[in-house]
Design goal:
By secondary structure, this protein is an alpha/beta fold. It has a domain of 229 residues: 3-Layer(aba) Sandwich (Rossmann fold), CATH 3.40.50.10540. 37% of the residues lie in helices and 15% in strands. It has 34 helices and 27 strands. The strands form six sheets. An eight-stranded mixed β-sheet has the order 12-18-17-16-13-14-15-27, with helices on both faces. Strands 3-2-1-4-5-6-26 form a seven-stranded mixed β-sheet. The chain has a four-stranded antiparallel β-sheet with strand order 20-21-22-23, sandwiched between helices. A hairpin with a 4-residue loop joins strand 21 and strand 22.
């Protein structure tokens, strides 16, 4: 008997082109869905990308001409035979091809219709070209990378994080809609966009901007952040010219690192370093920085890594490029790679499924099909009756809340796990954050706990000391009383068992519980028990090397050179890997939830940051003998080629995205140079001279009117864009919420919606804000709660009076 999969019996028709939709439906295929990819007559135009071997795998391919009435009629009939349809593009394109939800859901109320677009389906930017570079430029992301070079201009954002998050957010919406349909018998409209999927990468700016606007003297002003890395997150150069990225965020990890490089003793006898590192003076920090950098120059990278691995409590990885990243020992020895036969490339090695679901595992069945390989089966599918759907029940679904009735107990800390919990809360799940007695340590970073606001939006919070047996009992009561579906954490090794939340311990309370763990590495590789934080995963996954470029290989004859290139490398190592992991964690938990609902089973779900970030860098995590290299970023960090690149205008900077012959022809007509082609010699210099003749905002206006992707890339920061931009406001993507400390603020909007916006987006709680309410829900009296507080079993952060 074959092992069941979460999406057995689900048919998906994929009308998208390119990696965003392709990766989404690959996840569905890996976990059991039957995916039919509909391609144009010439095939998906992005098949030339190396990563297409991943995002086409496990599917069947047919071709339809959606520019014709007969092709559109067949598309609708094929959609009617499916459970899920995935489409991509701006509203007018979908209408022209009759792929819009109104057309495809007519006579098919069971259908889940998912749209992935650049900008969303409404608002002033809805018809702009949906390239990630355009979205990153206009929303301020490229401007935020200015710090990497320090030249006062935007820097190309190399890793396609919006594409990665959009693919996984589509999975969120589709699977959540399937869960809801199982209860109601009705399909849903699912929408996500590249723009929405950049929201998770702003960790504090939106909130900080609003607090600065108030000039409220009760709040400290924002700290002026040093341009140099913190000592915890410092890249260090080694004797053989390699760079090692450190990620020792918490104090005990930093001390382990200092001990491993034989500096801890020296520092502890110096009066400048006898307090907590958080209290070292700026002058002392610079002394320690130079000591660390000089010490690490004494040995080659491999020697240092052997020392760090032996210690077992140091978060560090050598900064590697994509080719090296795919052959990382933890991926190879941990079973994270698969090998299969591909119709185009022969034997191909590539990254495996997004996560390990113990009871309903992902299985990679076949390689990428040839264009139209399954055309002879089309007539059979067109004749299918619509799928069997459970009859509607009395319970109706609230728009925007497909996970209503699902409860998640979240014990994770810092970013990767907690942000996944907030994504589930945005879809209507009840998420209860269980924090240590003093709160999630991430709350101590930056002023007034601002860093924790984004990560905990939509949750309730209770603080319990799980180091005490009574704390274990309270956690077990919470699981039972709330009938929890999921328990999530990011502890390593045997810590869960010692804290009373091991899988067998919680399964004894709730046999069908989903036990999800988010770690840095997979459970079967040599680093399984090692700590990891976002910068070390960025180093190990090839993402930071792709963004950093020449800084990694530059000569560093002096300590000043080492310091400057360390600064550039850390600036390139944006906080991408955490949200990249969060979105995969949410996908994996949702896949386990649909299996729990459809098959009545619980299971262990293991998510690791390394695999999640391989999916974000998908063009590097596939290999065959003649595989082309990932498109390189130019040495000036302006883009990939002349048609996809930053250019200085007379005033300001623009980003141009004209990657097809038709797009470039429209562009050439606007500038009065119809003879130019994408392969014209010295094209970048020619276009630089053209753009220098007008201001950036004028270019954007002219090009937008001509349906050319060209937007201003400077003069906007991410926080201001999210707070004020007309498109964001039109779509309701900056909802107003009440925060116990900060009062009325705008928060970050959802990455995906199911049936529309959630009518109840909420802010984040203070640590333990709901401790008493949750204990009362468990049946504890006021007197019993008071004793638990006196005995220091439970706790709450002091609640200030919010500002007006």
């Amino acid at each position: 008997m074959s092992t069941p999969q979460a999406l057995d019996g689900i048919r998906v028709v994929d009308f998208t082109t390119g990696p965003a939709g392709g990766l989404a439906t690959t996840v569905l295929a890996d976990f059991g869905a039957d995916v039919i990819k509909v391609e144009p007559l010439a095939g998906d135009r992005f098949r030339s990308l190396p990563g297409s071997a991943v995002w086409l795998r496990g599917k069947r391919s047919v071709v339809l001409d959606l520019k014709t009435a007969s092709g559109q009629a067949q598309a609708k009939e094929l959609a009617t035979s499916a459970d899920v349809v995935v489409v991509a593009g701006a509203p007018n394109r979908l209408l022209a091809h009759r792929l819009d939800s109104a057309t495809l859901q007519t006579d098919a109320p069971h259908l889940i219709h998912c749209t992935i677009s650049g900008w969303g389906q409404r608002g002033p930017y809805a018809e702009l070209a949906g390239y990630e570079g355009l979205v990153a430029a206009k929303s301020g992301r490229m401007a935020s990378f200015e710090v990497q070079l320090g030249t006062g201009r935007p820097v190309f954002a190399a890793v396609p994080v919006a594409t990665h998050l959009a693919s996984q957010s589509a999975v969120h919406g589709i699977v959540a809609a399937l869960i809801d349909r199982q209860r109601t018998g009705v399909g849903a409209i699912v929408e996500t966009s590249l723009l929405q999927c950049l929201f998770p990468f702003d960790l504090t700016d939106l909130l900080a901007l609003q607090l600065a606007d108030r000039r409220d003297q009760r709040y400290e002003p924002l700290r002026t952040l040093s341009t140099m890395p913190t000592l915890n997150y410092h890249p260090v150069r080694t004797q053989d010219g390699h760079w090692i990225q450190c990620g020792n965020l918490l104090e005990h990890l930093l001390f382990s690192f200092l001990d491993s490089i034989d500096l801890l003793g020296e520092l502890l006898v110096d009066e400048r370093f006898q307090s907590s590192p958080a209290d070292w003076t700026p002058q002392a920090i610079e002394v320690a920085r130079d000591m660390i950098l000089n010490r690490c120059l004494e040995r080659p990278a491999a020697d240092w890594m052997a020392t760090f691995r032996e210690n077992g409590n140091v978060a560090a990885e050598i900064v590697v490029n994509g080719d090296q990243a795919m052959h990382h020992r933890d991926l190879v020895n941990g079973g994270a790679l698969v090998q299969l036969s591909d119709a185009r490339h022969g034997s191909v090695t590539q990254i495996g499924p997004i996560a390990d679901l113990g009871a309903t595992p992902g299985v990679v069945t076949t390689g990428a099909p040839n264009i139209g390989e399954h055309q002879d089966q089309l007539a059979t599918w067109l004749g299918d009756s619509r799928p069997s759907v459970p009859p509607p029940v009395t319970r109706s679904s609230t728009p925007g809340q497909p996970l209503d009735g699902i409860t998640v107990i979240d014990l994770s800390a810092i970013i990767a796990g907690p942000l996944a919990g907030s994504m589930l809360a945005d879809l209507g799940a009840r998420v209860i954050k269980v924090e240590p007695f003093g709160g999630d340590p991430f709350r101590q970073l930056l002023t007034e706990g601002r860093m924790a606001v984004k990560m905990n939006a939509g949750k309730e919070s209770i603080c319990i000391d799980l180091k005490q047996p009574k704390g274990h009992q309270l956690l077990h009561e919470l699981i039972a009383a709330t009938d929890a579906n999921v328990i999530m954490h990011n502890f390593r090794g045997d810590v869960p068992d010692r804290l009373g939340l091991g899988y067998e311990q919680v399964r004894a309370i709730k046999p069908d519980i989903i036990w999800a763990v988010v770690n840095g590495y997979g459970p079967d590789g040599p680093s399984a028990k090692r700590p990891a934080t976002h910068p070390v995963v960025g180093a190990a996954s090839g993402g930071v090397a792709y963004q950093a470029g020449p800084a990694l290989t530059a000569d560093c004859p002096t300590l000043a050179d080492v310091r400057e290139h360390a600064r550039q490398i850390m600036a390139a190592n944006d906080a991408n890997p955490d949200p990249n992991t969060s979105v995969v964690a949410a996908s994996a938990i949702l896949l386990a939830l649909v299996a729990q609902q459809r098959q009545g089973i619980g299971q262990v779900v293991r998510i690791n940051m390394q695999v999640a970030n391989a999916w974000a860098n998908i063009d590097d995590f596939v290999d065959w003998p003649t595989k082309p290299a990932r498109s390189p970023v130019d040495p000036d960090h302006r883009g990939l080629h002349a048609g996809y690149r930053l250019y200085p205008a007379r005033s300001g900077w623009i980003f141009l995205a004209a990657t097809t012959a038709a797009e470039f022809e429209r562009f050439a007509a606007v500038i009065g140079r119809p003879e130019l082609r994408l392969d014209s010699s010295d094209l970048a210099n020619t276009l630089a001279a053209v753009f220098a003749a007008e201001d950036a905002d004028a270019w954007e206006e002219r090009m937008t009117a001509a349906q050319v992707g060209c937007v201003q890339a400077d003069g906007i920061d991410v926080g201001t864009f999210l707070r004020d931009d007309a498109h964001v406001l039109h779509n309701g993507w900056a909802p107003m919420v009440e925060h116990e400390r900060f009062g009325t603020v705008k928060r970050w909007g959802p990455t995906v919606t199911v049936g529309g916006l959630n009518p109840d987006y909420r802010s984040a709680p203070l640590a333990g804000e709901h401790t008493d309410a949750l204990l009362a829900e468990l049946g504890h009296t006021d007197a019993a709660i008071a004793k638990l507080r006196t005995d220091r079993i439970v706790n709450s952060e002091a609640a200030p009076v919010p500002p007006t």
